[in-house]
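Entry 14. Structure prediction run on the chain below.
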Amino acid sequence: MKQSAPETGKDPAGAREEVTVPVPSAASGGPISHAIFRLARLHRMYAGQLLRRIGLHPGQELVMMHLWELGAQRQTDLVRLMDSDAATMTRTVQRLEQAGFVRRRPSPSDKRASLIEPTAASHALRHEVEKSWSQLEDLVTDGLTADERTAALHTLERLEQNLVEAAAESAGADTER
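Output returned:
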């Protein structure tokens, strides 16, 4: 069984090249899940290429987006906002701090906590992050009409909601045991 995969290029006449990726028979019961996996992998790869040019790794720009929009945050709040885990967020914040994009300062309301805040250097980076995200969006949606973009976004949001509900039900079942 084969499924179409994201395009790798265009022929000289401008027509899209059709690329197929073999789907293992064990994945034949989940063709949409397999397609999501492939899409997510390629999306992260291209995002990584764009972000490396400005000194970031995938995921770090999302932390910065929250900090730019919300201002200084406790690390535990970033974990919640990003639906991450403490260890991953610790590494992310440490790397951003080493790069000079965030700094820690004591929380005025909680002496045990520190606040993570964006630096002036990160504010200078914001335009480049926004530009990279626009480039990625253009790449991903190339050739789609406005209606197709809207439908794609709606479908992705529905898939996400299905998983959120399943995770909540699973967590509820775990607490009942």
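Helices lie at 31-52, 60-70, 75-82, 86-98, 120-141, 146-176.
Filed with the rest of this week's runs.
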